[in-house]
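INTERNAL AUDIT FORM
Audit reference: QA-55
Scope: verify that the stored structure record matches its stored sequence.
Auditor: D.O.
Record contents follow.
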Amino acid sequence: MAKPDYKQLVNRYFDLDEYTQMIMRLLAVIYEPTNQSTFNFILKSYLVSNPIRELPFQIHHRTTPVTPTAPKSQQLPFRPLTKSLRKKLESKKIISFTKGGQLQCAQLLKSYLTHEAVLLHEFEGMKTASVQHISLQYFGYDSYLDTVKVKRQLHYAVHQGNAREILKLLDIQDPYSPLQLEEEHLLMEVCADPVDRIVYESWPQWLQYQVLNSILKTNLLHWSDATLFFELLETTLVNADPPEPVLALYTEQCMIRGEWQKMQRSLAKLDTIQGDTLRACLLFMQGDDDAVDSFKSVLARIRKD
C-alpha cells in the first residue's frame, strides 16, 4: 500500500474532532517520540494550566491567518489518549511508532501542526508542558537521541521566531552564511519535510533563503523537480533590493533553467566574483567569443583577492 502524501495527511487531520486535533497539535509540539503515559501527563498538565480559547474553525482552512475577535475561554475536561484512539490515529498514518513502541506525530505533519498551535495561541503552553516532562537536553552517549534533541530545539526556535537560537544551532553568525553539511541536514529535516507555503511565509527572509538554498543546491545533484522552490525564490525573495546571496542563488538558478534574460537583469546587480563567474558562464553558453577573456578576468580577480 502506498504511503499517504502530505495533503492526504492534512485532510485526515481536519477530519478529526476538535479535541483530537488538539491532541495531534500537542504531539507535533512535543516533536520527539514518547510513551503513552508520559503523553497523557503532558496533556493533563497543559489542559490544567492553559484554558482553551474558542477560535473560528475556518482558521484551519485559511489562505491567510485569521485573527479572532473577543475569544472566549473554557476549560476542557481531560480525556486521555486511549489505546483505541491511538489505533485510530495509527490507521490514518498521522501518528507513527518507534521500534520501542513510543508514539509521535507523523513527520510530514510536525511543522504544519506546530504552526497551527502558534496561530491558535497554544504553542507556548504546549511547549512548557512538554519540557516539564521531556527534557530538551541529552547527556548520554547515544548520537541518535542527541540528534533528536537538537532537532527539537531547532523546531522550537523556528516556531518561536528565535533568530539567535536558530543561528546558534546552525553554527553560523551571519544569517546568509553557507551551512556546513551537518547543519544543512538538520535544517532540512526540521523545516523542509515538507515545505508548506503557509509555514514558509511565517519565517524571516534569511531563513527562507537558507531552506531554499539547501533544497535548490541539492536538486543540482539529484535532478528532482524543483519548480515550486524556484517559484518561491522568485516570488518571495527576489524583491527590489535582495541581499547578495539571494541574488547570486537566483542568478545561478536562472542559468540552470535557461532563463537568459532574467539572468542578465540579475547579473546587472551582482558585482561580486561569483557574479563575474556567472557572467562568463552566460557568455560561454551563448557562444560569445568574449567568454575566454571573461574567465581570465575572473581568475585574475580571484588571485588578487
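Auditor finding: record pair retrieved intact. Residues 143-160 form the longest helix (18 residues).
Action required: none
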